[in-house]
Design a protein that fits this description.
Elements (H helix, E strand, L loop, with lengths): L1 H31 L85 E3 L2 E5 L3 E5 L2 E4 L3 E5 L4 E5 L8 E6 L2 E6 L3 E6 L5 E5 L4 E6 L4 E6 L5 E6 L4 E6 L6 E4 L2 E7 L2 E6 L6 H6 L3 E12 L2 E10 L4 E4 L1 H6 L7 E8 L6 E5 L2 E5 L18 H17 L7 H21 L5 H17 L7 E4 L4 E4 L18 H18 L1 H6 L1 H12 L15 E2 L4 E2 L12 E2 L2 H17 L3 H22 L10 H6 L5 E3 L2 E3 L10 H7 L8 H4 L3 H11 L10 H11 L4 H9 L10 H8 L24
Helix pairs in contact: 4-5, 4-18, 5-6, 5-7, 6-7, 7-9, 7-10, 10-11, 13-16, 15-16, 16-17, 17-18
EC number: 3.2.1.39
InterPro entries: Endo-beta-glucanase (IPR005200), GH81_C (IPR040720), GH81_N (IPR040451)
Family: Belongs to the glycosyl hydrolase 81 family.
């Protein structure tokens, strides 16, 4: 077996070298010719593996919208929303001139009263506007839920004329700076075992209160370290840059008069950790940034103050992806619990994370068996013919996007199996369906630009926060726009003239959730949905939730970045293709880590892991087996929402055949329930086809209808592009000629 794998690696390496040489020559020839904005044409003699440049990605101050339109990027008509909150109450005035985050890890701090807690690992942190409370959360679990509860273990405030609200003075990918004017500034850095604050206005009177009873307060000789024990069984250590001189006023209150400097607070989960916390207490981070300078690579850098080395915590996916390029030391024996798995100590102020490369292929990754050509062709002709008599009737941006992406799949299936005579009909359907959304002539809905937060909204959504599944309040942007971008990418591929005409609109839609810039004056917020610390997307938008942001469908998130990569391929834009592919790869690994549940793995409690094979909705502070639209018992929906839309990249997401078998066997009994939708059954059978092709094929042939984003053609294409009797990990599906950039 090992010999076989070694042989395959050598073959892939040789293939990559050949493709690299071919592409280098192609790029050289293109540089010698005038730029006509014609999409890159991949030589027909090459296997169906698409290319991304070997050169580093552009700096992170670039955007998706300015590459081809440097003077005046396209902007959709201005919309005036009556349902969006006003950000000016909580953001510093100097931040209001730039687009603001709408799906961030700290979003609760700028919604409604700003008093809902956020989980900034490993603490739940709540602002009460004039004070800040820290919770080392308790964790509860049932077969249906895992959640953490907030308790105000320690509350910090100043008695120096506090204002009536907190203020976000700065924010970054890995941190937020939260001020309690005029006296205190909190540096809330994700993954820090310490909560750090500094005084702003000279000597300040401080108070530290708790809902528990204080059992003991022990200072060191210099009064720069205090060990605080409580009747909750918790121990906190309080460090300070100068003598704090804490006094106990009663059994739940400590005070310090006239303090100036910085304070760091850490819970002590294990007495043996005290020496480690002592060692690194003098070096504190004030901000943290993430950057993408190479394909399939994210680099973290923190700005620090004090002296010594920087100690932070890594979640399980960080540990899997930490590269040898990182000059860090992992403290395997130093762990904090979290809802995302154990957080492990890492020493170093720069990390490099690398994901396995994934090819953004138009077609199946290993080809369709010719045995299925006739059956697929027959179904494809019927599906394409139905486009003539079944126009899209919905005005919903989500369901409309699914419908046009479904039609776009027909074109690529036709290309792959040589049934190209259906493409003109599909092309016309896509042109007539997509163009009105891009030129503003669609009746009943359309995209608008919101200046207040800096992003797209819909006509239906500017007056109704529930319309378009909350798109008007920035919910699910990557889902909706991902479907549109997929259809646009395909149409631009088969109709380059149309693609060139509507390229500005396409890039504006991509920029809404793929902008990388951090500069003021940008049009769109930076990476609206993707969380550079958790390495997956969030979908909650500007709605306050007790458990923070959430995401239901990882597969639709993956589709968004996959579609952006295809758009880059259609336009010959290697930068966009690389960014899309990179985010797709990280989102895939996150889905496999936190949404795919494996019994005995230890990430989640066994009570939950035994009952579930996929998480329904993943929240920042909770795991829910239910869906927004279905109860936990509807397992076919839980499987389907993690698979749709069915695409070439789906086989990478579900590459673990053993897990797929467990998932399907866990789901199949639910199909015996009365009223199970045929569309959901199709997704279950699609995964069954990974390990039992013939059985799945017979079941698919018996389906009477399909999901509104799926079709018989697509299911047959999927089944006939599966291997027979596959075990372990599906081999050969991550083949990328630029693989060495991901190592």
């Amino acid at each position: 077996m090992d010999t076989n794998k070694s042989f395959k690696r050598k073959v892939i390496t040789k293939l990559g070298n050949k493709l690299n040489k071919i592409l280098s020559k192609t790029i050289k020839r293109r540089k010698e010719k005038p730029n006509t904005e014609t999409p890159v044409q991949i030589p027909s003699s090459l296997p169906p593996v698409q290319q991304i440049p070997s050169s580093p990605l552009p700096p992170t101050d670039s955007t998706m919208s300015d590459k081809h339109h440097r003077t005046s990027p396209f902007c959709f008509p201005r919309g005036q929303s009556t349902v969006l909150p006003d950000p000016s109450r909580f953001f510093s005035p100097n931040l209001l001139s730039s687009p603001l985050p709408t799906n961030s890890f700290f979003q609760n701090y700028c919604l409604n009263n700003g008093t809902q807690p956020e989980y900034i690992h490993p603490y739940l942190i709540k602002s009460s506007l004039t004070s800040l409370s820290i919770s080392s959360p308790s964790r509860y679990h049932t077969p249906a839920f895992i959640y953490q509860t907030f308790t105000a273990d320690l509350t910090i405030s100043s008695t120096s004329n506090p204002s009536q609200t907190h203020q976000i003075s700065s924010y970054h990918d890995l941190s937020i700076t939260l001020d309690l004017p005029p006296s205190l500034r909190f540096y809330l850095v994700r993954g820090s075992p310490y909560v750090t604050f500094t005084t702003l206005a000279g000597p300040t009177d401080l108070s530290f209160s708790t809902v528990h009873a204080i059992l003991s307060l022990t200072p060191n000789d210099s009064c720069t370290k205090y060990t605080l024990t409580m009747n909750s069984g918790q121990t906190f250590i309080i460090y300070s840059s100068s003598p704090l001189n804490l006094e106990q006023s009663n059994n739940s209150l400590l005070t310090a008069k006239g303090f100036s400097g910085f304070v760091r607070i850490a819970v002590l989960p294990d007495p043996s950790y005290e020496q480690v916390l002592d060692q690194f207490s003098s070096c504190y981070p004030v901000s943290g940034e993430a950057s993408m300078n190479r394909p399939f690579c994210i680099e973290y850098n923190w700005v620090k103050k004090g002296w010594g080395e920087l100690l932070l915590l890594a979640h399980p996916l960080h540990l899997k992806l930490l590269s040898d390029d990182s000059s860090v030391t992992v403290l395997d024996g130093f762990k904090y619990r979290s809802i995302d798995g154990d957080l492990v100590g890492v020493v170093g102020d720069s990390w490099v994370l690398k994901a396995d490369p994934i090819s953004p292929t138009w077609h199946s990754m290993k080809g369709v068996s010719e045995d299925g050509y006739d059956e697929i062709t027959s179904a494809l002709r019927k599906d394409v013919e139905s486009l003539k008599s079944n126009p899209i009737t919905t005005a919903s941006s989500y369901f409309y996007g699914k419908a046009i992406a479904r039609a776009a799949r027909f074109a690529l299936i036709g290309e792959e199996i040589g049934c190209k005579d259906v493409i003109p009909t599909i092309q016309q359907f896509l042109k007539s369906s997509i163009t009105p959304w891009l030129d503003g002539t669609f009746n009943g809905n359309g995209f608008l630009y919101d200046k207040k937060w800096g992003g797209l909204v819909t006509r239906m959504g500017v007056a109704d926060s529930g319309a378009d599944f909350g798109f008007g309040v920035y919910n699910d942007h990557h889902y909706h726009l991902g479907y549109f971008l997929y259809a646009i990418a395909v149409l631009a591929k088969i109709d380059p003239s149309w693609g060139r005409k509507y390229m500005p609109q396409a890039y504006a839609m991509a920029a809404d959730f793929l902008t990388l810039t951090k500069k003021s004056g940008a049009t769109y917020a930076r990476l609206r949905c993707f969380d550079m610390w958790k390495l997956h997307s969030w979908a909650g938008g500007l709605t306050e939730f007790a458990d923070g942001r959430n995401q239901e469908s990882t597969s639709e998130a993956i589709n968004a970045y996959y579609s952006a990569a295809l758009l880059g391929l259609s336009y010959g834009d290697t930068h966009l293709a690389a960014v899309g592919s990179t985010l797709m790869a990280f989102e895939t690994r996150a889905a496999q880590t936190w949404w795919h549940v494996r019994e005995g793995e230890g990430l989640y409690e066994e009570e939950f892991a035994k009952e579930n094979r996929v998480v329904g909705v993943l929240w920042n502070n909770k795991r829910d087996s239910g869906l927004w639209f279905a109860p936990p018992e509807w397992r076919e929906c839980r499987l389907g929402i993690q698979l749709l839309p069915l695409l070439p990249v789906s086989e990478v997401v579900f590459e673990d055949v053993g897990f797929v078998k467990d998932l399907v066997q866990w789901t199949l009994p639910a199909l015996e329930r009365d009223g199970v939708g045929e569309g959901w059954k199709g997704f279950v059978y699609a995964l069954e086809g990974i390990y039992d092709k013939s059985t799945a094929l017979e079941k698919i042939r018996g389906l009477k209808e399909h999901d509104d984003g799926n079709s018989l053609s697509n299911l047959l294409w999927w089944i006939y592009s599966r291997d027979d009797g596959c075990e372990g990990l599906v081999e050969g599906i991550r083949c990328c000629w630029y693989r060495h950039y991901g190592r």
